[in-house]
Structure prediction request, 317 residues.
Amino acid sequence: MSAVPDSLPGISRLGLGTVQFGFDYGINNTSGKVKYPQVLRILETACRNDINFLDTSRNYGTSEDVLGRAFRQLGLEFIVSTKLDLPDDFRELSDKEIIQQSKTSLHRSLEALGLDSIPIYLLHSYELKTYRNGLIWNCVLEEMTKGLIRYPGVSISGSPREAEGCLGDPALRVLQIPFNVFDRRLERAGIFKKCAERNIVLFSRSSYLQGLVLMEPDKAAAKVPSSKEFMKKLGEISGACAVPPKELALRYVLGKKELASTIVGLDSPEQLQENLGIFARGPLNTGLVEQIETAFQGTPDELVNPALWKIQYPPPA
Ligand SMILES: NC(=O)c1ccc[n+]([C@@H]2O[C@H](COP(=O)([O-])OP(=O)(O)OC[C@H]3O[C@@H](n4cnc5c(N)ncnc54)[C@H](OP(=O)(O)O)[C@@H]3O)[C@@H](O)[C@H]2O)c1
Prediction:
């Protein structure tokens, strides 16, 4: 197969999640899709503060188009991670049609983002990676040989089985995972260590669980009932050490050295500034890390898997 790129991209430890630029998103969101002038301010703030990495997808509404327009307007460059999109009914298509749709998705991403080559290109799930004996994944690898993709990978749910399945493939170079104070399934299963050993770029999302971690416990419980006891416990830890839950959540994730980057979704430059301030305070001390890891050992799937929250994305028109 294709040559493996020889060096890993130097992606910033803090990255931007940009689904919020493409449609209304987030369990606690009230402001809707981020307006274009705000996107420009977020990207400028990011660049000024040495953030060079962002995550998007062909299926995050207008996110790629907005980003491409902003890159051109501001003359900025980011290391972009994007994802392949297929029509909802792709399972009814022939192999040939799926390959055609996959190539179309890649070319649309390249065009929208104004790039000759996508730095990190992901499939949205392990199911897509293994679909029809790797039909879509093999298409991605073939496009990589043409130089249209640098690092191929998969964005997975928190299932260790899926992560193991991905790690069994030497062609895989990047893994995007959910990871936060409530969700350590993959770290506990040894996946962080294995990625480091195999030189796989590991980056995380969902430090704030879409914003759930930042909600009042009662409000959070109204949306995700199983969150109540865990949010209460997080509040207790926060009260005892006088560190706000938001800061505990982000500094906890930023302390994991095996993560090349952590992407945080944003609605405003002010949120980015605040997250940068938190980032600057560095990882939590060992005692706090231990408290968090002891308190949240057995969190239920309903809490850590937003797909079970029954919120529809993109929202119905
Ligand atoms: N591959 C996948 O399956 C997948 C799935 C989901 C997301 N993603 C990616 O991951 C990124 C992150 O999304 P996520 O769902 O994991 O969300 P997240 O980063 O855990 O949380 C993002 C949300 O937290 C809130 N927030 C951030 N900074 C804040 C601050 N300083 N103060 C107050 N609130 C703050 C905002 O919500 P409010 O609206 O409440 O302000 C923001 O939308 C996405 O943008 C996307 O790129 C990937």
